[in-house]
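Amino Acid Chain and Its Fold in Token Form
===========================================
What this section holds: a protein sequence and its matching fold, both as plain text.
Structure line: whole-number tokens from a learned vocabulary of local backbone shapes, matched to residues.
Purpose: to set a sequence beside its fold so the mapping can be learned.
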Amino acid sequence: MRAITIPEAGGPEALVWAEVPDPVPGPGEVLIDIAACGVNRADVLQRQGFYDPPPGAPPYPGLECSGTVAVVGPGVTGWRAGDEVCALLAGGGYAERVAVPAGQVLPVPAGVDLVTAGALPEVICTVWSNVFMTAGLRAGETLLAHGGGSGIGTVAVQLGKAVGARVAVTAGSAAKLARCRELGADILINYREQDFAAELPGGADVILDIVGARYLERNVRTLAAGGRLVVIGLQGGVKAELNLGALLAKRASVTATSLRARPPAEKAAIVAEVREHVWPMLADGRLRPVVDRVLPLSEAGEAHRVMEAGDHVGKIILTR
């Protein structure tokens, strides 16, 4: 088969469309003929040499895909050849085929086309596992989602509103904030012009953070009593000073998580919750995928340039 390889770390030109060995599904795995895959910030980091795949994962980038089941491995039930599916991956989405544990496979949601489904599993599993399973966002609480115009942000806004929360977002342009408003965001903060801590005097019960060190002090200052900060990205650095006294005074918590390296059993549990709680929202329109653009897989380098420029809203998709 063909896949996007990374012979040497570097810029977008480091992505090379090449012939590679065909994957073979092992026990408990499903082989998928890929139709589309979503582009994520982690793919950019992997290309730059900063985020290696976990042991045993395919070496090619791509943390989510959609397609058609080609082969069902030994011991797999519930899936058969020809099923249209999407899947959460540890790697390998930028390819023509991928083998994935069956517990990480989802049906294409009702009302969503096969290509768009390729940009759902990673972002939705990330938001659901962190905002709801880890931070426990509830109706009536306030969620602050940094990077509101990103794939993560556009899903966080909609899921937060769907459960009855008040949602605040940060973004770097009026256009991105306008899109967030269309999705239901209540409080719009331009981080280039406003201090998000000052804009939320009542605090936030849950903060979903993709920035990391640069925002840590202000995030803690912004937390309400009993607030929960979940850090899922490090775009603003990895080291910062944490005031434990401020956490104690607020009875607050800081959690840092990642999804890619979790064992298959944990990923399967997240996928099962997403299928139960989120897939019905896609079917009835409460959650709408936001797609910025669709490019051919052979133009993965251009997709990375778009992501690094930061002008997109929602997801970038690559197709066969």
User: Anything to note?
Assistant: The chain has a mean pLDDT of 97. Residues 121-134 form the longest helix (14 residues).
